[in-house]
Amino acid sequence: MQFKNLLLTGIMIIGLVCNVWAGGKTSETLFTHAHILFERSLAGDDSVTAVALNKFKILSMIYRDNPLFLAYQGSCYTLMGRDAWMPWNKNGYTEKGLDMIEKALRMLKPKHDHETMRGAPISVETRLVAISTFAEVPKSFNYFEGAKAVLNDLLRSSAFANSPRSLQAKVRSQAAKMARLKNKE
How distant is the alpha carbon of residue 140 from its chain centre? Predict the structure, then answer.
């Protein structure tokens, strides 16, 4: 079964790389398709989580210098942890996802403040994915303070000020949600 999944993933990667080189789908188009599945998973449709995860894995392999794809891949792993039945799978998937998101944050460079995906700076959306994921994982993982630190950095960044208003609204909404969670403690 594992070999079959690896083989299918390899075939998909080769096909996507050939398509991109031939002038087909761009990273933004591929990202949009993956993001739609991610949003469905986030809303509770666990039947698409693995598919979204595989799409983000492929994007991360093709576009290795894009931290946004890695952040979403990590967030998909935490969703796999959310939906897993066995405690060791819950922890394993969640830890793997959190590690990937931390790596994505470390990958951020000043150029990511200017490079965009769907009109939004890559650095801003990468941080938003980190904040949203860190704030939602169980308290036992101790990531809430990390979410606050990333949020504070994001709010102070010039890239945030130059982001589309819709993205700024999502960040502010997440900040308000975190403040409510903090007040409940």
Answer: 21
Taken in order 74, 82, 144, 179, is the CA torsion positive or negative?
positive
Residue with tokens 């903090």: 182
Stronger pLDDT, 33 or 4, i.e. the higher one: 33
Bridge partner residues of 117 (DSSP): 120
CA distance 16 to 4: 18
Q: Exposure pattern of 23-61 as b/e (b: 16+ CB <10 Å)?
A: eeeebeebbeebbebbebbbeeeeebbbbbbbbbbbbbe
The pLDDT of residue 183 is 77
How far separated are the first and last CA of the chain, in Å rounded? 44
Mean pLDDT in residue range 152-156: 96
Task: Confirm if 67 and 107 have CB atoms less than 8 A apart.
Answer: yes
Read off the pLDDT of residues 45-92 as tens digits, 9 standing for 90 and up: 999 999 999 999 999 999 999 999 999 999 999 999 999 999 999 999
Q: Which two tokens stand for residue 44?
A: 């509770």
Q: Which residues, in sequence order, are CB contacts of 150 under 8 Å at separation 6+?
A: 105, 127, 130, 131, 134
Average pLDDT of the residues of the chain: 89
| Residue 45 falls in which region: left (phi positive, over 0), alpha (psi -120 to 50) or beta | beta
Q: Top-level CATH class of 2-184?
A: mainly alpha
